[in-house]
Amino acid sequence: MSIEEIQNEIVEEFSMFDDWMQRYEYMIELGKSLPLIEEQYKTEDNIIKGCQSKVWVHAELEEDKLVFTADSDAIITKGIIAILIRVFSNQKPIDIIGANTDFIDKIGLKDHLSPTRANGLVSMIKQLKLYAIAYQTQLN
Q: What whole-number distance in Å separates Cα of residue 12 and Cα of residue 140?
């Protein structure tokens, strides 16, 4: 699936819930299905700066696609990174770099996060795109 198709799928899933309590519960469930980062990658180098909670992200290039794993010490944050990884993992770096993230506004996520969590969300997206830029440079 393309990044856009996955984003549309997420927008559709979130539209099924009537209120934000249900959406938070769904995000927590998504966090439980997150492809977990191996312990050896839970290092300072892999922590996303700008997040209130600890979020570790690791990226590897498999064939020509980036595969992300992650973890967080906070359940909502784990759900947020799970959504982003679902969108960007197993995609080509060039597609990740060019992807827009309007789907976050469509599901209303930013409006329902505290300012520090919203900043963390921006930091997570930025870090995933930085990984993509780094790997794209290697591919060129």
A: 36
Q: What angle do CA 43, 3, 96 make, to 5 degrees?
A: 50
CATH class as words, domain 3-139? alpha beta
Distance, CA of 65 to CA of 76 (rounded, Å): 27
Question: Among 53-57, 66-70, 136-140, which stretch is predicted with the lowest mean pLDDT?
Answer: 136-140
User: Is 25 designated active site?
Assistant: no
Q: Model-level pTM greater than 0.90?
A: yes
Residues 84, 63, 33: CA angle, nearest 5 degrees: 30
Q: What is the pLDDT of residues 10-55, one digit of tens each?
A: 999 999 998 999 999 999 999 999 988 999 999 999 999 887 899 9
Q: In terms of C-beta density within 10 A (0-12 exposed, 13-18 middle, 19 or more buried), how is residue 90 classed?
A: middle
Residue 4 has phi, psi (to 5 degrees) of: -60, -40
Which pair of tokens denotes residue 103? 């789907």
Residue of 30, 48, 51, 85 marked active site: 51
